[in-house]
Amino acid sequence: MNMKNVCIGLLVVAILQESHAAYDTSDYKVQQLKIKQAESRLPDNRRARNVILFIGDGMSLGTITATRIYAGQQQGGDGESYCLSFESFPYVAISKTYNTNMQTPDSAGTVTAMVTGYKTKSGVINVSDKAKRGVCAGATAEQLATIFEQAAKQGLSVGLVTTTRITHATRAGVYAHSFDRDWEADTLMPQNAKQNGCQDIARQFIDQGDVVEVALGAGLSMFTLEKDGGKRKDENLISLWQSRYPQGKYITNKNELVGVKPSKDLRVLGLFAENHIPYVLDRNADTPSLSQMTEKAIEILSTNPKGYILMVEGGRIDHGHHAGNAQRALSEAKEFDETIAKTLSMIDTRDTLVIVTADHGHGFVMNGYAARNNAILGLSKGLDGQPNKDMEGRVYTTIAYANGPGGNQIAGDFSEQKVLAKDYTQNALIPLEEETHSGEDVIISATGPKAWLFQGFVEQNYIFHVMSKALGMDDEKLSYSNLG
Question: What percent of the chain has pLDDT over 70?
């Protein structure tokens, strides 16, 4: 089955194969068959053995649409009717992303909602709305228990895979509790926070090491000393991790990742860059892909007969958008989708709940009445093949940003060749040093046990409750620790 046919659904594919009918997304018969497929679908109420939470950081609905077209065109085909892997998922809901104090959210507040079941302020990780950002109220004050911590207590294995620093906001949500998302290393914390008993996020990863069995990503600098090019003054946390887990595997390149032999209770820490893993468009052969990291994580975590819970994040989708660089954002989103496809080939959705969502959106737009099959990253062109023009006779691209570093460009001062270059920064309405998040809702797609619970418009913290229900966890145990 090619990727395009994934969108139809297995029942429809089987019927079409029997009738030798050609697939066409606009075909009347196909849509009728999809109705029959929907009518035949029954809720899956089995308990999940595993949960995989895929987070496309900054993957707005517009990003999904543009990535679909980009991926299809990259294969030399019809981008508009191409299908991303998670478009085959039978259940979809709309997630409201706001933080308790922000209309437009940040990743710390949004991940807290997803993994604890409670919304909180922008800039804090897994602590309650009572907390004040940057003010340490003590090591355990206002902490919210996460689904990962509770899963580990029940004997499940926990994994984290990302293309960014593992101490960065969304990924830190797997193991950390912090009054400030920026406290990634000891040198990045105020002295009074340390005196009040708070720990930096990298230190928490080490001290919460019994929670995360497999962590693959980047951010080595947050674990190493300043004299070695890192951010720490206290001690080398990599050496500390190795001393605590002498049978564990610490790895730094793709060959070492490939060489890891999965076994039960194996702990693996893979940090493949000092800061973030390079963008897909800029990587060298020594750097593993998101798909390769995820494949290895699943192989290791699957050795636990009790099951596992895994977060996989396409973290640099967000970074491409912040840079106003659509090509890098879309290529990262394409890799994210390829990772989901690889995962689906490895698992059984009869015992694994798979959720694909985003933490927030971006001020990213597709516009301008471009003709079908127009290059998604190129100039907007009409049915006559000629560039569309604004009121002053200037050409423009299909993709633009509401704000960002592209705001100082002179509209129309570019060619097709220029706008298709990987370093091109799209036009933006409002000039800013960095493009911002948006406050729009995002999509949740799901398949597997209890996936049918994703229906309609939901608050972002609803995701936690579905995962908890799927794993059969005791809701009372998942309450927060110190909210009065």
Answer: 91
Q: Is residue 87 scored above 50 in pLDDT?
A: yes
By mean pLDDT, which of 25-29, 112-116, 235-239 is the weakest? 25-29
Query: In sequence order, which residues have a C-beta less than 8 Å from that of residue 147 and are 6 or more positions away?
Result: 51, 115, 116, 117, 309, 464, 467, 468, 471, 473, 478
Residue 16 · residue 23 · CB < 8 Å: yes
Q: What angle do CA 188, 241, 263 make, to 5 degrees?
A: 135
Report how far apart, in Å, the C-alpha atoms of 410 and of each of 328, 392, 414, 435, 473 are: 22, 12, 9, 18, 56
Amino acid making up residue 78:
D
Q: Which DSSP helix (H) or strand (E) runs through 428? A: strand 428-431
Number of neighbours of residue 459 by Cβ within 10 angstroms: 14
3-state secondary structure of 25: coil
- Cα-Cα-Cα-Cα torsion 407, 409, 415, 418, nearest 10 degrees, comes to -70
Main-chain phi, psi angles of 412, to 5 degrees? 85, -5
Q: Which residues are CB-contacts of 417 (< 8 A; sequence separation ≥ 6)?
A: none
Amino acid at 63: T
Enumerate the β-bridge partners of residue 72: none
Q: How far apart are CA 90 and CA 77, in angstroms?
A: 25
What tokens does 238 get?
């990599």
d(C-alpha 324, C-alpha 280), whole Å = 16
Q: What is the pTM of this model?
A: 0.94
Looking up tokens 């396409």 gives 314
Q: What are the structure tokens assigned to 330, written together?
A: 């879309």
Per-residue DSSP letter, 85 = G
* Residues noted as catalytic: 107
**pLDDT digit string (tens) for 183-242?**
999 999 999 999 999 999 999 999 876 899 999 999 999 999 999 999 999 999 999 999
β-strand 308-314 against 157-165: which pairing, if any? parallel
Cβ-proximal residues to 4 (8 Å cutoff; 6+ apart), any chain: 23, 72, 77, 81, 82, 83
- The residues with which 403 forms a beta bridge, in sequence order, are 430
Listed in sequence order, the residues at least 6 apart from 146 whose beta carbon sits closer than 8 Å to its beta carbon are 115, 116, 126, 173, 174, 175
pLDDT digits (tens, 9 = 90+) for 123-163: 999 999 999 999 998 878 899 999 999 999 999 999 999 99
C-beta separation of 205 from 177 below 8 A: no
Cα–Cα distance list, 315 to 159, 241, 242, 349 (Å): 16, 24, 26, 24
Rounded CA Rg of the chain = 23
Contact 107, 357 (CB under 8 A): no
